Structures are given as C-alpha cells and as structure tokens.
Amino acid sequence: MKYNIPRGTFDILPEDSYKWQFLQDSFRKMATCFGYEEITTPIFEVAELFERSSGESSDVVQKEMYRFQDKKGREFALRPEGTAPVVRSYVENHLDKLSSRTKLFYLGPMFRYDRPQAGRYRQFYQYGIEFIGSNNPYYDAEVIAVAFLWLNKLGLNNLRLEINSVGCPDCSAVYDKALQEYYRPFLPKLCPDCVKRLETNPRRLLDCKVPSCIEFRKNAPSQMDYLDEPCKKHFSAVCDYLQAMNIPYTINPRIVRGLDYYTNTAFEIIYEGLGAQNSLVGGGRYNGLVEQIGGKSIPAIGFAGGFERLLLALEEEKIELIPPSKPDAYLVCVGDNTRLQILPYLNALRTKGLIVDYDPDKSSLKAQLKSAASSGAKYAIIIGENELATKTVNLKNLQTGEQIAIPMDEEYTINKMKN
What we know:
Keywords: Aminoacyl-tRNA synthetase, ATP-binding, Cytoplasm, Ligase, Nucleotide-binding, Protein biosynthesis. The protein is of the alpha+beta class.
C-alpha cells in the first residue's frame, strides 16, 4: 500500500533543508544579539491552556485546534501557537526568580486545522520572541526591531510595519460597545461567524475575510479614538522609539490580533508581494496573560512569524540563501586490503570537522577520481597498499592537478589542505 502525506503538511527535502537551517541559525544569531535565550516547549499541552489564553470564542479554539484525549481521558491539544506554552513554562519554572526581565525566543512546529493554501499549512513552523517583565514602551520597540531588522538583514526590501494599540481592558471594553452599536444594524447581513463575534468578541469583526463583512468595516469606529490617556501615552512613546531606531511604520487602526490576550501595542510586518497571505510577523503586548494562567501580574510582549511565508517572500525577491558546503575532500581507496584499514583515518578526519566523501561501491582508481571531480571537493586523498605500508597519503588538488605525498595524520592533512 502506498501512503501519502497528510493534507496541509509537507516534507522538507534535502535539497531545501539548508534554507531552513540557514534561516533558523540566522534568527538565533539576531535574537542572541538582543540578549534573548532559546526555550523549547512540548508540541502538546493541556487543551485548557489555550482555551484560557486564546479565548474560548476565538477561531483558534473553536475551529482550528487539534484536540485529543490520552488513555486516561485527559484533554490535550497540539500547540496552535507558541506564546501560551512559553508563558506556562515561565510560570511553572519560576523564571521570574532568575531575573526581573526575561528574554526568550523559540523555534518549532505549530498545528492548526485550517484550509491549506500558499504560505498556510496545518503543520507550520514558527519563530518567535517573548519579553516578560516590563511595561516600558522601549521593549515594544525592541521586540519589533528584532523582527524588522532581521528580515531587513535577510535582504527583504518590500516590508511594511503596521502598528496599532488595542488598548487596555478598560478602554477596550468601551470600544467593544461602540463596535456593537455600529454593527448591530448590519446584523442580518453579517456572516454567521461575525453574528457570534458581535456578542463575544466584536473586535474580531474587523479581521473577517468575508467580502460583505469587509465592506462594513470601512466606516467602523477606530480603537485609536477610544484609548484612555495612559494607553495614548504608551502608544506615542512606542512610536517615538521606533523613529529613534530609524524603523519606518504605518499606523493601522484596523489591526486586531486573532487571540484574546493582546493589550496595547499590536503590530504586523507585511510583505507586499504575497497577496492575501502577506503577513510575515504578527505580535503585540499581552500584559494580563501571565496572571491569567497562574502567575503574577507581569507585563509582556512578543511576536511570531512563519518560515513558510518568509521563504515565499525570499523567492519573490530572488534572494539566494547560502547553499550547503561542498565536500572538503574525497577519499580514494585503491586495493581490497585498504578498505578496512583506512576507516579510522577517515573517521578521524570527519570528527575533526572535515567534510569527506567516500564511496566503497567504487573500486577502480579512474571511477573514484571521476566521482571526486564531480563531487565538488577541492582535494582527493588517495590511499593504496603502498601508502598504507609507508603510513602516507597522496593529497591531490583537483583544481590544479598538483599531487604531493604527506604523512597519514589527520591533523597534518587538515593543516596542509587549509594552507
């Protein structure tokens, strides 16, 4: 029987894996430069964690979460996003005792039952940042800077940073009432999801993708008009910090995040060339989440982005990532008696960091040298019975044809190749 990959998933084949490795390593370096440390959480958690953090009325919980019961009947879920697990770990492991400000980043797969399309999958890979410990608006700008500067460093030019404030619980409650009053006359024309959202989470109407609902939101009231003074001051300071960092931005009062835990700053980094699925990064503040899932009242902010859309953006701008390294050397073995005896030397070269190709299925000198040339290796290391007897190897430069005899010593071989 032939088996096919589940819908909405994909294999990362060897020909593409170096791109993923490059991006992950690059993100790690950028996050580390800003003082962030890596954290890894399980790919499944108790389902209640996401119900409490994301909101029971959110699309993630209602429609997209992969749930399952274990053999004891306990409810678990594959993680649909990375923030709640990181905050759970922060609370459970008392990371606040190590420092008043905690800087974390993560990489890994997430899962949502969604309609697969370009840049959107049911298993997708995210990178993310979580800063926990301060409400200083500088950290809003710093978190944004990690994402924006990294994407810019990769070579992406068609980026647009959009920012908004969704307010605090007090002023957002007033705004929710204003949205309900605005949308109520259109209730018969709203999509079924938005009819439910109007009572449970009216701000989600601003993010609906149904064409008729998009039309109604054009004249909807703006959250910016309902911010209280502390929220206005915080948002203004974030903008000042971004200007000081020379990070361009656009204020978009329609930005709402798909999860209920966001407060104050919300932002997205848009790539212009990807059509409808054009958001590379999304994030914002979640000052109430730590307390909501059992910790102290500690402010926090973060973001997440998907590698799949990022790769599409890089392809759109024809940005080539660094390909995998070619072999440093190709080991040519001549004579049946040498095949076992050269293995300690071969493994010693590899454990010292040298990329050495070797094919025991090829026996003739001519065939092995042909493979050595086609492998892209700079050197061929040729060993026959005479070389074994004298404990030497022939080092051949495949670009110049020059060949010299050197001692069969891995350190000497590596130094000679480097010089």
